[in-house]
Amino acid sequence: MIELRTPTQIEQMRPAGRFVASVIGALAEKADVGVNLLELDELAHRMIKDAGAESCYIDYHPSFGAMPFGKVLCTSVNDAVLHGLPFDYTLQDGDLLSVDFAASVDGWVSDSALSVVVGTPRPEDVRLIEITQRALDAGINAARSGNRLGDISNAIGSVARAEGLKVNLQFGGHGVGRTMHGDPHVANDGQPGRGLKLRPGLVIAIEPWFLHTTDEIRFDPDGWTIRSADGSRGAHVEHTVAITDGDPIVLTARS
Question: Which amino acids does the record list as binding a divalent metal cation 2 (predicted)?
Answer without folding.
Answer: 111, 174, 207, 238
